[in-house]
Amino acid sequence: MTDLSARSTALRCGRYLLDLSRPRVMGIVNLTPDSFSDGGKHHTVDAGVAHARQLLAEGADLLDLGGESTRPGAAEVSEADELARVLPVIHALRDCGVPLSIDTAKPAVMRAALDAGADMINDIWGFRQPGALEAVAGSNCGLCAMHMQGEPRTMQTAPEYDDVVEDVLRFLQVQVARLEAAGVAPGRISLDPGFGFGKTVPQNYRLLRELDRIAALGYPVLIGVSRKSMIGAVTGKAVGDRMAGSVAAALSAVQRGARIVRVHDVAATVDALKIWDTVETVATP
Ligand code: 9MG
User: Fold this and answer.
1) Ligand 1 center from residue 124 Cα (angstroms)
2) What is the pLDDT of residues 126-135, one digit of tens each?
């Protein structure tokens, strides 16, 4: 019988085997001029690299570089523009000592990013775009397959599910089957329920409450709740004031089995996880 718990204690990410015996922090590096939470100030290459280095200094275990905004209603970006934003940053950070993940759904960007030295592909479309599976199957990169209902432009219009947890579970199982049938080793796959991607606030919180059911699939669970509207809906805070709410939601996710948390506020999340880890695992007399 397959030992499911063993499968989620590490993730093969290209050059790295990411140890997941403790939860890890993925720092978000937005390389888009219209980034929803930083007003676009990190969109130039130099600013993006400087921001990435700051997140590394704060303790990020891996970085997620994105050249196309995925916020609801965001405009699409051409392949050429996305490559122009992402490739120079991969080149500058290639030897930074942690895995570099690229947030993209475009097969050509996936291939170019992997050729340039990226270690992981984070695809909000779950590798469903034509050519995406083929772009990653033959490499050794880590993968994050995320659930999204609809597409970023319209996904928040009227999300509908029979049962949000069952539907997301079924979707993720189908993506795992597709990836493995294409030759992707199970140890390269992480799964993400896609908070905020075609989900109402109550649907997001039900998914968070029952995240252990997704973790029970046996693959590392990666989550992103940082500064999202589900945090603002409960705290009443504007995007720039959602750090405490985001950290609390990340801890709730980790408590329910998440192993990688994708965040803007790396330093605060690292501290919170140190405390969580000490409470949970460090033996005291
Ligand atoms: C790119 N991106 C924005 N939000 C995200 C989330 O929740 N998960 C993943 N994997 N990627 C995200």
Assistant:
1) 6
2) 999 999 999 9
